[in-house]
Amino acid sequence: MAALCGASRLAGMPADALLDLAVDAARAAGALLLDRFGEPQSGIDAKSSATDMVSDADRDSERVLLDAIRAARPDDGLIAEESGDRPGTTGVVWVVDPLDGTTNYLYGIPAWSVSVACRDAEGGLAAVVHDPSAAETFTAVRGGGARLNGDPIRTTELADLPRSLIGTGFGYTPRRRTLQAAALAHVLPRVRDVRRAGSAALDLAWVACGRLDGFYEAGIRDWDRAAGLLLVGEAGGETGILDPGLDGADCVVAAGAGLYDPLCALVRSALSAAGAETDRLH
């Protein structure tokens, strides 16, 4: 991969070299997952609830990612969905989701991804969201822009909320889903339409390339969003986390620059209305 403009150095390695490492690791993990996609899966278990699933595919993909990162950067910190956190000494931290969209993957729905982000004390440094099913690799370097398969991408310039196509997602506990459904009922009449693909990392990548005008979701974790937030920012969009969000969870909002403020206002009002309605019913 060619060096990107604006790439900075960190811990002895240029940012675009960190991106190369992230891309190679994500594609290796994606190849493993794609090879197994559509086949019977093993080691399926539940995590936070009966609907929050994990499988050997998740675990093996994460092993590929972590082995690659540790071999090249043994002293960096790691935050991984399945194996947890490991502190480092360099100031560089890798945030890894080995399979974002596990439910889709287990059901044979081709909307899942591998997400790898690298950050320092200033925030996101390099990011990859790899979609093996579509052979699409979204990348970003801080100050170097965002790309899809090497070509520059930008968020949409839409500023009219009623004409916007918005992505969202739902949590895994019944209470959070109830609140999210109530919030959605407030959002849906005020936008063009809403999409729920099932992979937050892909949703954010799609905001970055203009397939969605915006995205919001309460409760997604660091590994779900770390790469996607840098993608959107480097593609000219804006991102933020509403706190408090919903059911004690932060709510991520991302959109093109012209839509971000009105979308944030809509989501805030939707979360407030959802909380009030749920309290009234219970």
Q: What's the CATH architecture name of the largest domain?
A: 2-Layer Sandwich
How do the strands of the widest beta sheet line up side by side? 6-5-7-8-9-10-11-12
Characterize the main sheet: 8 strands, mixed
Uncertain residue ranges: 1-9
Strand content: 25-35%
CATH topology of the largest domain: Fructose-1,6-Bisphosphatase, Chain A, domain 1
Helix content: 25-40%
Query: N-to-C terminal Cα separation, in Å?
Result: 55 Å
Structural classification: alpha+beta
Describe the protein.
The protein has 282 residues and is of the alpha+beta class. The protein folds into 2 domains: 9-152, Fructose-1,6-Bisphosphatase, subunit A, domain 1 (Fructose-1,6-Bisphosphatase, Chain A, domain 1); 161-281, D-Maltodextrin-Binding Protein, domain 2 (3-Layer(aba) Sandwich), CATH 3.40.190. It is built from 7 helices and 17 strands. It has helices spanning 15-36, 56-72, 102-107, 174-187, 200-209, 222-234, 257-281; strands at residues 9-10, 13-14, 45-46, 53-54, 77-80, 84-86, 93-100, 113-120, 123-131, 136-141, 145-148, 151-152, 165-167, 193-195, 214-218, 237-246, 249-256. The strands form 4 sheets. Strands 6-5-7-8-9-10-11-12 form an 8-stranded mixed beta sheet, with helices on both faces. α1 (15-36) packs antiparallel against α2 (56-72), α4 packs across α7 (257-281) and α5 runs parallel beside α6. Residues 1-9 have low confidence and may be disordered.
